[in-house]
Every structure is written in structure tokens, then in C-alpha cells.
């Protein structure tokens, strides 16, 4: 049975998982979840994903949620070891990978997802953007990207000189920055960040996701 991703192609987290499948050539099917109908809050959905958030995957009866956990699972099972994640036997490379993944989760996602919430999702659902919150998030993100620039001045990617899931995790929300007119990743203000972003955002897997 083909791996199914129960989510929405407009969802950042769904696309995080789809990107990994595309990277590894893993056949998959997206089972659409209609937010407008509240399908993500329906009992049959929350029976699998108690938080009512997309996506979750079903791999021949094995069900898993949380996009980063799903990405790791797919990489481990479907040929991603040595490509997108290190061999677990290599303790030091694995530690550097987990460090990089933690950087994305702690020092990137809260700010870019917050900006997307204020500038995109609030207006989409009838709310109003709070300029003070936007300014605070942008200022914090600037400090984080300065630190990214130091790291990426030493290695090509966040975990070393080979791309990993930790880099790809940035793609969905990073892409939304430009759609908000925030050019932090492409302006050259942090040259190592810009070089890295152009690299990962031009990968065929992401081009396929964004062109669909």
C-alpha cells in the first residue's frame, strides 16, 4: 500500500513531509483534509491526531503525526540514511544533525511561523495583523539569522557539508517570508545565509512542491 499523507497541500507542515518524499523518490498520496469543513477537528481525524493538526501519515497501518518526526521516519525507512540523515552509528554526525534540527525548531520556526500567522493567516481568516508583534518578530529573527550566518560561514549546510533534513525543514516557512515582502533570506545582508537559502530552495524536490 502506498504511503498516505493526510493533510493539505497549502499546509506548510504537509509540504515539509512531501519534500522528503520527493527527495527520496518515495511514492505517496495526499489524502486531502478540508479545513473549511473542519475535517481536521472531526472525530475520525483526532482519533489519530489528537491536536487536530495536519498532517499525519499512514504507512500500511502504521500511523504517525508531527511533520519532523514523519520526515525522520521516511528517511530512516526509505533510503535516506547517508542522504538526508547520518548513519545512526556515526554518533558525532548524528549529534551535529540533531543540533542543526534543534536550531531550526528553536531559532527559526517560532519567528517565521509567527510572522506568517500575523501577515498571512490572520488576515486570511478575518483577523488583523498586529504591527507591534511583526516588528518584534522581525527584530528577533534578524538576530537569529546573524547567528546562522556565522554557522554557515564554517560549513556549507547547518549540520556540515552535506544537506540534511535539518536544512529542508526550513523550506515551507522560509518561502513564506518572501511572500510577505521580507527579503531576509535573499537580500545578501547575511551572505552565507543567502548562499545557503538559494541552494536549498532551488532543489528539484522543492521546485516540484511549489510548482504543483
Write up what this structure looks like.
- The protein is an alpha+beta fold and 212 residues long.
- The chain is 54% helix and 8% strand.
- Strands 2-1-3-4 form a 4-stranded mixed β-sheet, with helices on one face.
- Strand 3 and strand 4 form a beta hairpin.
- The mean pLDDT is 97.
What is the secondary structure topology, with strand pairs?
Elements: E1 3-7, H1 12-24, E2 28-32, H2 43-46, E3 56-59, E4 62-65, H3 67-77, H4 91-107, H5 109-124, H6 131-152, H7 165-168, H8 171-179, H9 191-201, H10 204-211
Parallel strand pairs: 1-2
Antiparallel strand pairs: 1-3, 3-4
The side-by-side strand order for the widest beta sheet comes to 2-1-3-4
| pLDDT < 50 runs, ≥5 residues | none
What's the average pLDDT? 97
Could you state the order of secondary-structure elements as H and E? EHEHEEHHHHHHHH
What proportion strand? 5-15%
Based on CA atoms alone, the radius of gyration comes out at: 17 Å
Shape by Cα distribution? globular
Helix content: 40-55%
The count of β-strands is 4
Structural class: alpha+beta
Distance between the termini: 23 Å
Number of helices: 10
Amino acid at each position: 500500500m502506498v504511503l498516505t499523507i493526510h493533510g493539505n497541500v497549502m499546509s506548510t507542515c504537509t509540504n515539509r513531509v512531501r519534500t522528503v518524499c520527493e527527495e527520496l523518490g518515495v511514492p505517496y498520496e495526499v489524502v486531502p483534509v478540508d479545513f473549511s469543513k473542519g475535517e481536521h477537528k472531526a472525530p475520525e481525524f483526532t482519533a489519530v491526531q489528537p491536536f487536530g493538526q495536519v498532517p499525519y501519515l499512514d504507512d500500511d497501518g502504521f500511523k504517525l503525526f508531527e511533520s519532523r518526526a514523519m520526515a525522520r521516519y521516511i528517511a530512516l525507512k526509505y533510503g535516506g540514511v547517508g542522504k538526508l540523515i547520518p548513519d545512526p552509528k556515526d554518533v558525532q554526525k548524528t549529534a551535529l544533525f540533531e543540533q542543526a534540527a534543534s536550531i531550526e525548531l528553536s531559532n527559526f520556526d517560532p519567528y517565521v511561523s509567527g510572522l506568517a500567522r500575523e501577515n498571512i493567516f490572520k488576515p486570511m481568516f478575518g483577523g488583523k495583523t498586529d504591527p507591534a508583534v511583526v516588528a518584534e518578530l522581525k527584530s528577533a529573527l534578524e538576530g537569529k539569522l546573524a547567528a546562522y550566518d556565522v554557522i554557515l560561514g564554517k560549513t556549507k549546510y547547518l549540520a556540515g557539508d552535506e544537506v540534511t533534513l535539518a536544512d529542508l525543514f526550513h523550506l515551507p516557512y522560509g518561502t513564506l517570508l518572501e511572500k510577505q515582502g521580507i527579503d531576509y533570506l535573499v537580500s545578501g545582508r547575511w551572505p552565507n545565509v543567502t548562499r545557503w537559502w538559494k541552494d536549498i530552495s532551488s532543489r528539484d524536490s522543492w521546485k516540484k512542491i511549489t510548482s504543483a
